[in-house]
């Protein structure tokens, strides 16, 4: 800085400490409450110092929310969303930047249109689509009058009913959330900055497009892929609305949804100690990801949000 | 405050595209709102050093967003490559969106056996219903307040962390933490802190003589979700502002300092205006966050109550569609929300597309 301003610097430190406290206070009280017995947690005022029940509460929360199962579900969903989005986006970004085909701009705009329209606003129809993924085929069959055609050909009366229920399945949890354009645009932007000479050289050497993609483009994209993977993992782990609609089967619930059932309601025993232990457990994996991979995380965030 | 300081190039804060935001506006303002156009064409004032260097090789029909070195006019392979993306989009995006559009002009009973075409009656009914208008007011109040709090706190924190040297990375790491925490969990943490019976902060409020009960008092409930939503989102705004500040030209700040402007004055008169596009982008993102992602907070903490005080629009879509099974009304609400989301996206591109600067 250009000049010395000790007073201002002190104020800045005070502001930052206040900001850090703002972040830490809820986490600290979650820890305190998570380490108390149920009798202690109901005492007013809440003790400022943690008690000795921390591990026991963690175990209780683990069992009560069936975290052995729901953590597994969360991991499958988060990894599935991450891998799916990245794979699908890499391929389509490659297609729209490296090939000159007739429907290139149409494909581009189709993908672009899906940008930023969150799943929250179209939950009912999306749920229908997942409840019967064969619905589009059904409509197609109805529209083309396949049944009438069949009757005309064979003389038999048939009704075509196509059903493919994906509720309570991993694909049902994962696939609708893969439909988003941000990752495609991130890779598209990155590909546009890749030097043309690389592709020219690859073509001179007789490499096929897929070979170029696999041996040159993919290795170049590694840092972008890692950065994006972190963001998408957090996104997948923290999903709420979509898994909520799928909790008809308890075994398919994700950790965040299972945690919700630990919150004391007004008519139940106020087991906030268990709820807070569960909250700490559920936020642990994403928090570790951010702490360990902070540098990549920032790159991914800044890149993917523009 | 120097872009070439060791902090600026520290591994934690990568050089980012936000750098371009802070350039003098004449360089970056683009006239094309569409992303397809921006790639190839910049406004006349934008320098094009790279294009000037690369000779065109007899390709007058260059398409926007296409690599100069490409694999030519093949059609089979790119179609195959695009297929997974397009299939997923069609199944889970376009068809559901179309269905929402269709349902919004239909009236059907919960079992779907009796369907009637009713034109815009669903929309008319929505705007006639006091509950929906109340939900609009609540949503606007909620998102605007959340937006103002989040941005204000983030700006102050960004300014402070830009000034201090010692302990900066510790502060940053701590401020980043809420990004990892799911909105639902953030809501649960705050619900506990302000639980009228056991919550430590609620106890403090009571000790100060403030009556506080988010389970009964609509106003308290709304403030509770606003606080939780802001707490969760401050880190997001902070990251963008902090990275943007690193890119403010040091020469400009030094010149202002020589002219006698103090650090605070420099911040508000130079740095913040240069961050204008970033702030605008963040405001739009905050609106999107407030409108859609806070669903989890509402559902985990207040369930839209008490007395509909926290029944924001996206929560109402869910309740009407999945609990009350009023599909027509829910679809009409979806369509209205989609329109809003699209406007937000377009705004974002209109004012932020100049970040997309490949020099192609």
Structure description:
- Chain B: Keywords: Cell inner membrane, Cell membrane, Membrane, Transmembrane, Transmembrane helix, Transport.
- Chain B: Residues 136-348 form the ABC transmembrane type-1 domain.
- Chain B: The chain crosses the membrane at residues 75-95, 140-161, 173-194, 267-292, 331-352.
- Chain B: Belongs to the binding-protein-dependent transport system permease family.
- Chain B: It is a multi-pass membrane protein.
- Chain A: It is a multi-pass membrane protein.
- The complex is a heterodimer of chains A (306) and B (360).
- The longest helix of chain A is centred in the first third of the chain and has 32 residues, at 67-98.
- Helix content of chain A is 70%, strand content 0%.
- The two termini of chain A are 30 Å apart.
- In chain A, α1 crosses α16 (272-292), α4 (67-98) packs parallel to α9 and α13 (222-237) crosses α17 (294-304).
- Chain A is mainly α and 306 residues long.
- The mean pLDDT of chain A is 85.
- Chain A contains 17 helices and no strands.
- Chain B is mainly alpha-helical and 360 residues long.
- Chain B has helices at 25-28, 35-40, 49-53, 76-103, 121-128, 130-163, 168-176, 183-193, 200-207, 218-246, 250-258, 263-274, 276-293, 295-301, 313-323, 327-352; strands at residues 106-108, 115-117.
- Chain B has a two-stranded antiparallel sheet.
- In chain B, β1 and β2 form a beta hairpin.
- Chains A and B meet through α1, α4, α5, α6 and α9 of A and α2, α4, α6, α7 and α8 of B.
């Amino acid at each position: 800085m250009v000049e010395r301003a000790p007073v201002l610097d002190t104020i800045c430190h005070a502001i930052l400490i206040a900001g850090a406290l703002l972040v830490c206070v809820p986490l600290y009280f979650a820890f305190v409450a998570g380490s108390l017995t149920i009798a202690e947690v109901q005492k007013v005022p809440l003790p400022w110092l943690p008690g000795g029940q921390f591990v026991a509460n963690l175990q209780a929360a683990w069992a009560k929310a069936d975290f052995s199962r729901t953590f597994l579900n969360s991991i499958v969903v988060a990894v599935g969303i991450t891998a799916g989005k990245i794979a699908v986006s890499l391929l389509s970004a490659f297609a729209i930047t490296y090939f000159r085909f007739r429907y290139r701009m149409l494909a581009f705009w189709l993908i672009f249109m899906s940008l930023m329209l969150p799943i929250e606003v179209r939950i009912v129809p999306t749920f229908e689509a997942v409840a019967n993924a064969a619905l589009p085929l059904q409509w197609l069959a109805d529209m083309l009058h396949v049944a009438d055609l069949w009757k005309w050909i064979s003389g038999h009366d048939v009704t075509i009913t196509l059903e493919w229920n994906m509720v309570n399945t991993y694909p049902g949890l994962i696939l609708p959330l893969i439909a988003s354009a941000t990752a495609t645009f991130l890779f598209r932007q990155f590909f546009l900055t890749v030097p043309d000479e690389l592709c020219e050289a690859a073509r001179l050497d007789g490499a096929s497009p897929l070979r170029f993609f696999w041996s040159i483009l993919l290795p170049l994209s590694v840092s972008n892929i890692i950065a994006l993977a972190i963001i998408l993992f957090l996104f997948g782990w923290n999903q709420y609305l979509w898994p909520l609609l799928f909790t008809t089967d308890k075994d398919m619930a994700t950790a965040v949804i299972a945690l919700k059932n630990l919150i004391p309601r007004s008519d139940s025993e106020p087991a906030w100690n268990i709820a807070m232990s569960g909250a700490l457990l559920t936020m642990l994996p994403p928090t570790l990801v951010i702490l360990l991979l902070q540098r990549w995380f920032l790159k991914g965030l800044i890149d993917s949000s523009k | 405050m120097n872009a070439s300081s060791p902090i600026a190039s520290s591994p934690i804060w990568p050089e980012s595209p936000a750098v371009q935001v802070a350039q003098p506006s004449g360089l970056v303002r683009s006239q094309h709102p569409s992303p397809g156009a921006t790639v190839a064409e910049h406004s006349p004032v934008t320098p094009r050093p790279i294009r000037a260097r690369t000779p065109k090789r007899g390709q007058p029909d260059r398409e926007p967003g296409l690599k100069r070195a490409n694999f030519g006019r093949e059609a089979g392979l790119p179609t195959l490559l695009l297929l997974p993306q397009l299939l997923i989009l069609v199944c889970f995006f376009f068809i559901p969106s179309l269905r929402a559009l269709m349902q919004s002009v239909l009236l059907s009973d919960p079992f779907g056996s009796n369907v009637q075409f009713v034109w815009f009656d669903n929309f008319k009914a929505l705007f006639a219903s006091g509950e929906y208008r109340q939900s609009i007011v609540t949503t606007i109040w909620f998102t605007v307040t959340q937006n103002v709090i989040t941005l204000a706190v983030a700006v102050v924190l960004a300014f402070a962390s830009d000034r201090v040297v010692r302990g900066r990375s510790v502060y940053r790491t701590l401020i980043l933490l809420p990004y990892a925490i799911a909105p639902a969990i953030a809501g649960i943490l705050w619900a506990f802190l302000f639980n009228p019976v056991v919550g430590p902060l609620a106890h403090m409020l009571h000790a100060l003589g403030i009556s506080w009960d988010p389970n009964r008092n609509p106003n308290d409930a709304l403030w509770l979700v606003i606080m939780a939503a802001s707490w969760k989102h401050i880190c997001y705004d902070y990251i963008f502002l902090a990275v943007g500040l690193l890119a403010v030209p040091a020469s400009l700040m030094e010149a202002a300092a020589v002219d006698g402007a103090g650090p605070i004055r420099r911040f508000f008169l130079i740095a913040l205006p240069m961050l204008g596009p970033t702030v605008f982008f963040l405001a739009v993102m905050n609106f999107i966050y407030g409108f859609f992602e806070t669903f989890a907070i509402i559902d985990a903490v207040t369930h839209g109550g008490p007395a509909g005080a926290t029944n924001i629009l996206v929560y109402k879509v869910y309740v009407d569609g999945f609990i009350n099974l009023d599909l027509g009304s829910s679809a009409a609400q979806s369509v209205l929300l989609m329109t809003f989301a699209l406007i937000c996206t377009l705004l974002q591109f209109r004012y932020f597309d100049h970040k997309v600067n490949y020099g192609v």
